[in-house]
Amino acid sequence: MRLLSLALLAPLAQGFLPAPAAPRPFTQRAPLHMSAPPKTRKAPVFDEVCETTGVTLTRFMIEVAFLNPEMQELPALFSGISTACKAISDMVKRSQLTGLVGYADGGGSINVQGEEQKTLDIMTNDVLKRALRFTGKLGVLASEEEDTPVGVPLNPKDVVFDETSKYTAVFDPLDGSSNVDAGIPTGTIFGIFEHDDECEIAEGGSMTEDELLCLQNTLKPGTDLIASGYCLYSSSCFFVVTLGAGVYGFTLDENIGEFVLTHPNIKVPETSKIYSFNEANMPQWDVPMRETVEKWRLGTGASGNSFTSRYIGSMVGDVHRTLLYGGVFGYPSDKKNVNGKLRLLYEGAPMSFLMEQAGGLSTDGRGRVMEIVPKEVHQRVPIIMGSKKDVQEVIDAYAKSK
Ligand code: AFP
């Protein structure tokens, strides 16, 4: 396999990737043909084994691949991701003892988005890249900690499974890392797209037009995801995943070193009494958002419920609670951050896929987050997601304000 180094890619990518998104209107939604599931993306079939608590993730994936031959390469990829999650869980848990705390290089290590990187940001990105690389199932990956998508070179000496079809993985290796040293929950978010096997990027020389197009092909809307999920590093280590037919939650049993199914077919309650936003930004929010939350506070919203507030400031923790208890989590557009704060490709879209598969909704206020086609890897998107009826109230408020 030909290689593409990050150093080579960065300047070239800057040349062809569009400039950062302009202020609103900021969304380009997928045309109908893109939002329809591609032919390989029929909803997988599960049997009763996959609904039974106590089944390990390994067994679950084997059953899924057995019942859905088009997914037979996913177990190898999931084995890589889940192993990385176990390693990261251990790293985070022991970081106070091993000294993996604070900023990388004693401070001053800045990622492409201008954010200062924690030691754990860099290490967890590395763990994921290595774990995925050795599965032999990955063509390209994009990460919060990488400037642009990078090819995943295989060392010919590595022992790999047969290399027939490949995937593109997007991930945020350690979401919420700014809080990690205070023991606050953090998580890894991932999304898996199909990768065009014809699409190889050569090492050296300038990129051909076809290669540039290939690279741009990694910028896909959430409707093209074939799987997404997260690992939550908290009181337990959770692995929550969707393959496009429901949401399944596993808990790490440290005694046997396996993720075990504890939450089959998660369904988010239709309505709730919890909202989860950084309320310090409230005066800057769009009027429909502000007015809806005001009503929830006063108990005068559509449900008549008086809401309470729960906000960790760590998306994986906030979304996990929302999936289990119901509620509305979001980072809406505000005057300072017109496109919100969260990243579309590796935070917004994968989490929206999970939320929708659990029966909830996810919107940027004007439409489905899942249908937005990214123009660049680190594009941000406003997000409001969670219990169906409550999120619908926000969508209706935006619609009325047009
Ligand atoms: P960090 O990874 O830099 O800690 O950011 C976390 C995050 O991307 C997401 O997990 C949170 O929901 C959101 O930012 C919190 O943002 P505020 O600190 O502005 O509330």
TrEMBL record:
Residues 1-15 form the signal peptide. Residues 56-264 form the Fructose-1-6-bisphosphatase class I N-terminal domain. Its EC number is 3.1.3.11. The keyword Metal-binding applies. Residues 268-398 form the Fructose-1-6-bisphosphatase class 1 C-terminal domain. It catalyses: beta-D-fructose 1,6-bisphosphate + H2O = beta-D-fructose 6-phosphate + phosphate. Pathway: Carbohydrate biosynthesis. Coiled coil: none annotated. Gene3D superfamilies: 3.40.190.80, Fructose-1,6-Bisphosphatase, subunit A, domain 1. InterPro entries: FBPase_C_dom, FBPase_class-1, FBPase_N, FBPtase, Fructose_bisphosphatase_AS. Its cofactor is Mg(2+). The keyword Metal-binding applies. Keywords: Carbohydrate metabolism, Hydrolase, Magnesium, Metal-binding, Signal. Belongs to the FBPase class 1 family. Homotetramer. PANTHER family: FRUCTOSE-1,6-BISPHOSPHATASE-RELATED, FRUCTOSE-BISPHOSPHATASE. This is fructose-bisphosphatase. It comes from Tetraparma gracilis.
